[in-house]
Specification:
The protein is an alpha/beta fold. 32% of the residues lie in helices and 19% in strands. The protein has an eight-stranded parallel sheet. The protein starts with a strand and ends in a 5-residue tail after the last helix. It binds D-xylitol-5-phosphate and zinc ion.
């Protein structure tokens, strides 16, 4: 069993000191940089776009994990590949032809992930699981950092883990929203492979210590 991966969400970073915060992640025990792209249509908030992704990519030394909360993400797949994104995640609820989108992400040379809103059943991914590198289980409604974790997520992760095992799929399970040292162990026990953490990391006095604490949780 691999060690859990921590992906700090730069949405909670200080954008006036973005390089500093990206470098903090570089020097930490984090595995990836998590980038939240919001369009104000799919979710009721606008975060940042290509110029900021480019600036992050310039200073980041770890793989870029981009989470697109936008409608019609197909239009930007090549752009994100050109910016050096490692893993591109689109929302199930935002794609008309999800399988085609996933194929296009892989054809552009990136790993492909699909995100599910809290109300979306994991069984809807049954016939596409084999084609995915990652499933992102949203544990808050997407759009904002700093929200409370939704407890039903644990069961959802357990159900998904079983589906992946049954299909002999090596896709990773990523959890995003309201994640921190308080629920990290329980999430890992349920089957999470990647923990996204925004507020719990960047609002902490010692962000690197929080990342290290979560990264060192033993996988049973
Ligand atoms: C929410 C984003 C998250 C967010 C997490 O829509 O997808 O990545 O930044 O922030 P916290 O950890 O503060 O819930
Ligand atoms: Zn996210």
């Amino acid at each position: 069993m691999n060690q859990v991966k921590i992906a700090p969400s730069l949405l909670a970073a200080d954008f006036g000191n973005l390089q500093r915060d990206v470098e903090m992640v570089n020097e930490s025990d984090a595995a990836w940089h998590h980038l939240d792209i919001m369009d104000g249509v799919f979710v009721p908030n606008i975060s940042y776009g290509m110029p900021v992704v480019k600036a992050i990519a310039k200073h980041a030394s770890k793989p870029l994990d981009a989470h697109l909360m936008i409608i019609d993400p197909d239009r930007y797949i090549q752009t994100f590949a050109d910016l050096g994104v490692y893993l591109l995640t689109v929302h199930y609820e935002a794609c008309q032809h999800l399988h085609r989108t996933v194929q296009a992400i892989r054809a552009a040379g990136m790993k492909a992930g699909v995100a599910l809103n809290p109300h979306t059943d994991v069984s809807l991914l049954k016939f596409i699981l084999k084609d995915l590198d990652l499933v992102l289980v949203m544990s808050v409604n997407p759009g904002f950092g700093g929200q409370s974790f939704i407890p039903a997520t644990y069961d959802k992760i357990r159900t998904l883990k079983k589906m992946l095992k049954d299909q002999e799929s090596s896709a990773l399970i990523e959890v995003d929203g309201g994640v921190g040292p308080d629920n990290a162990s329980k999430l890992i026990d349920a089957g999470a492979d990647v923990l996204v953490a925004g507020s719990s990391v960047f609002k902490a006095k010692d962000p690197k210590a929080i990342i290290a604490e979560m990264a060192s949780v033993k996988v049973s």
